[in-house]
Prior knowledge:
Layout: E1 48-50, E2 53-55, E3 65-68, H1 88-99, H2 101-115, H3 120-126, E4 131-137, H4 156-167, E5 171-178, H5 201-218, E6 224-228, H6 243-258, E7 265-269, H7 281-284, E8 289-295, H8 306-327, E9 331-336, H9 345-358, E10 362-365, E11 369-370, E12 385-387, H10 401-413, E13 416-418, H11 420-427, E14 456-459, E15 467-472, E16 475-480, E17 484-486, E18 489-491, E19 493-500, E20 503-512, E21 520-526, E22 535-540, E23 545-551, E24 559-565, E25 570-577, E26 580-586, E27 593-598, E28 606-614, E29 622-632
Parallel strand pairs: 3-4, 3-10, 4-5, 5-6, 6-7, 7-8, 8-9, 9-10, 11-12
Antiparallel strand pairs: 1-2, 12-13, 14-19, 15-16, 16-29, 17-18, 19-28, 20-25, 20-29, 21-22, 21-28, 22-23, 23-24, 25-26, 26-27
Helix pairs in contact: 1-2, 2-10, 5-6, 9-11
Amino acid sequence: MLGSCSVKTPSSEKTSKALPAEPAKPSEPVAPEPVVTEEPVAAPNFLRAEGTQIVDGEGKRVTLRGCNLGNWLLLEMWMLDMGHIRDQHAFEGILEKRFGPAAKDGWMELFRSNWITKRDFPIIRSFGFNVVRLPFNYRLLVAEDGPLELRPDAFKWLDWTIEMARKHHLYVILDMHGMPGGQSLDHTTGRAGQNKLWTSPEQQERSIWLWQKIAEHYREEPVVAAYDLINEPFGDYKTTNHLAPLVSLCDRMYKAIRTVDERHIILFPGTHQGLEFYGRPDEQGWTNIAFTEHYYPGLFGEEASVDSHSLFVSRTLPFRTSFLERMQTPFLVGEFNVVFEKVGGAPLMRYYYDRFAENGWAATMWCYKLIKEGGGMGKDNWCMVANREPMLPVSIEKSSRDDIETLFRWYGTVPYEINEALGAALTQAEPPPIYLPQLPIFASTPPAQDPLTGWQASDIRGALPGGQKVHSENDLDIYGGGADIWEGSDQFRFTWKPVAGDFDLGATLVSLEETQEFAKAGLMLRRDLAPDSPLLLLNVFPNGDVALGWRSERGEIMEQKKLGRALFPVQLRMRRRGDMVDVAYSNDGKKWEKTQVRASDALGRNASAGLAVLSHDNRVLTTASFKSVLLTR
């Protein structure tokens, strides 16, 4: 369920004719500022991580609820309804080509002076929020190339935000949304198509140095709730090549920050591969840290449906809660949004804020402000405020200097259409009703971890740690996670013994919990414990389908043949004689459906044989109950 804000698609007066060298002060709002009626939440001292909770200086739990100030200090062009422009780099390039480098910088300052102004902070408070996550481009602070030297006005906008937040009793999470060299190929880094952070020592050193400078600047600032090290470090979206560099870089940034600042929480970011690759914070020597991920169920390739959200609630939330309990680490849902009214809209947003708070998690929705060509809020919304009036018909590529200036100033003065449905849902005393189908909630930690006698157990390739309940020498329940035994690499729980040459392996599979339709349990012969090992697998699916799968050579794509369908309990058998392996299944122990295959040379004579179990969803564990397990060698 890990998401990215990368592909979101949402369905004035001129005061001078010349572009000012220095940006004007934020304009007064046209609409009156809303009145904040609730008692503000004070920020008297530093927040810190304590177990799985965020607490204040007195040890009192603090629940952070808020939003992102996106498209301000790092532009995402869809949020300006200029999706034909690739990214901020291209946007600035157009301004520079038309008006020159110095004027381009002035244009960007004028934009920043108007996208967020002092009128916005009371609105944020009126939604019941007490924190803003502040995404920024590293280029706001330091030149893209050249020496490690801060810009003269590097902290101008971060400082201004913190002062406004202090005035309105809000915390600030500093989020480096765009990293030196780019942390993914996405436009949300400020420059799409580059992904140099993971391979460039120079860009890594720039990142470490910059975070140390930020921490040095804000080490005495209690309004800053946390440092969010890297937004969405997704690499090339295809491989895991960035994971090892990510762990190393975060460790080095953490250590650099800690040389000047022991007080602030440091947020370690999740990827599409989760968080588990970091290991235990206490074993890494990391203190006062939290983890963060972004959740967009039903978006970015998933179906926008109520079922998507039910699955998220029943699978992702328990899985992540269990992990954080084991790690004893707090958590920030740095971005999330329901968007669609048909799946739950504003009431579901309230539900998520409440669920996150029950876990002690901080949460900041994406996003605060959005500009739409036609204006208005509509039914399906990414934002808290939008332009009430239609967008001015101005082209960055073609319109005059005066018209572009008018547009930029309009961003700060346009009357807002406020998402009143969301505001009401978030602030009313009782949460509005929602409808989510009740799905089974499966275990994400094993109900038992009884010791095994004679057998060994391995969670292959980072499968969710499993376990077993041992009823007798030959009867046991196995709790297994893992994504699949398929393609060229496997992830599952394997309970095994070494075999050399011929063997007989038999068991009765009494039941298999349907965590997913392609969950599997059965008998396996495997060359070794490497994820890409050659193997033979006789398995049963939750619906009773029986299949034989094999990988003849290391790393090859697996093949599979369906053998039929059985009723639980089903008896399974695997026998090796020389190079031939017989597999069979039966419902009654009398009539057997048999298949014979030749073991490949790569499978070898010295191998491992035993019981394979996987949930087909590595957030949860399935339970496979076996009886009469017997291996003779």
